[in-house]
Specification:
- The protein contains eight helices and no strands.
- It folds into two domains: 41 residues; 76 residues, no CATH class.
- It starts with a helix and ends with a helix.
- Helix content is 69%, strand content 0%.
- Helix 1 packs antiparallel against helix 3 and helix 4 packs across helix 6.
- The chain is mainly alpha-helical.
- It is flat.
- The longest helix has 19 residues.
Length: 117
């Protein structure tokens, strides 16, 4: 119970910090206040999941992050995924995972396009 209360307090502090950001700070981040607040609600492992799924498609982390707006879109799509179990199962295969197995992934079309470049 204590951990849940602590997590709630931490989340409230994070929201306060986001609300304290100036418009210039948000411009520097390349995100809107709503996007940043949305990211606070997402699971903490989103960046790692997107990067790992990108590797399955043969895309490096550098390539994924090259276009900031696209990176934010990838994170957002992943953060709203309803099939985290299938994702976890595929990512657990590591180097043995194949792009064709990612039929559930909302980012598969973007990963496919990036892999073809």
């Amino acid at each position: 119970m204590f951990n849940r209360i602590r997590a709630l307090i931490d989340r409230l502090h994070e929201v306060q910090e986001v609300n304290a950001l100036s418009d210039r700070d948000l411009d520097d981040l390349g995100m809107s206040r709503e996007q940043v607040l949305g990211f606070l609600k997402m699971p903490r492992d989103i960046s790692e999941r997107v990067t790992a799924m990108g590797r399955i498609f043969g895309i490096s982390e550098v390539e994924l992050k090259r276009d900031h707006a696209q990176w934010v879109d990838l994170l957002t799509t992943c953060g709203h995924c309803a099939d985290r179990a299938a994702c976890a199962h595929l990512l657990a295969k590591g180097a043995g995972a194949q792009p064709s197995e990612a039929h559930f992934c909302g980012n598969r079309a973007v990963f496919g396009t990036l892999a073809a470049e």
